[in-house]
């Protein structure tokens, strides 16, 4: 099988000259440039960056912080420290947590019992700040200890520009007197769009079942309705097909959204932060319109597919045995990428692209394949070459000898000349 792939100068969405709002307006929306997020990044789940906009700018994650809270709790579940079915009895302290003013919450009443799964749903759908504080205190006995674990996990993941001050994402001044005591002199958490992309990708790879929770539009607990704040879910007011989570966030710094969608085996994760002004219904809705447009743009330009099958292939004029199928995210235009074999015989797809920290281009092992006819042809060419060179050398020697002999005859003195 002959593969002909041509490389050209190709700039992917990682070098977009367009702002998020400009991309959104290309889809017939009418947004002001002032509604651009402070930072945004679109990635695949394996960390390939499809679009970036001030990706390393410091932002307030607000309630998208809860994604780290959920990761820590799901790790605890995975290590059998807790279970989704474990029950938490609401104390007077927990009831007061849910009564804090100026906070998104879900009403908790003393004497009620909720499972850890129900509290997670309150955090994921209603963005309840009280639920995260209750979970942190119930699991670790101390909100500070839980927050410490969140920050350790961030460092382990390579989220080097991130620091969490509590499990909810709210400003510590607002959640007083229930803020983590170790962090009481700090206010809001901070991160970057790039760091949150690392978190989102890791969470979805490690615990894909979390989408069963984040894609819920409603849930009922104690005859109270939970409503998902993610308006990009398919049946919501700004819904988009293929979306199945993750989380919104809101603070005085603006409106945030961590969004994920899957189409034709390609999962795209869009993280954008701090769309201003706040408070503003226009900015609140803009986060969904912009995230939807960035996600759709990724689906328009990229696909996830089998690039080459296992078996014998001819690449760059040589035959190789490809050890396994190679799947990768590639531009839909086949002329914009090529296959490359490294010195270590690793086959990968080459085009201009970037990855988040710790991620890399997919590759498969290849081995040069012996081809008897090709080798015979090469040997024949070599023999013919040797023969031709030999003939040329012999002819050259004969010509030289002939010229030398003539030269001797011309310069030799006669007997008369010698006698005189």
Give a brief rundown of this model:
The protein is α+β, with helices and mostly antiparallel strands. Helix content is 35%, strand content 23%. Helix 4 (116-124) packs antiparallel against helix 5 (129-140) and helix 5 (129-140) packs across helix 6 (143-157).
Please describe what this structure looks like.
The protein is α+β, with helices and mostly antiparallel strands and 420 residues long. It contains eleven helices and 17 strands. Strands 7-8-9-1-2-16 form a six-stranded antiparallel β-sheet, sandwiched between helices. Strand 5 and strand 6 (224-227) form a beta hairpin. Helix 4 packs antiparallel against helix 5 (129-140) and helix 5 (129-140) crosses helix 6. The longest helix has 40 residues, at 372-411. The protein is elongated and about 120 Å long. The model is unreliable at 1-15 and 416-420 (pLDDT under 50).
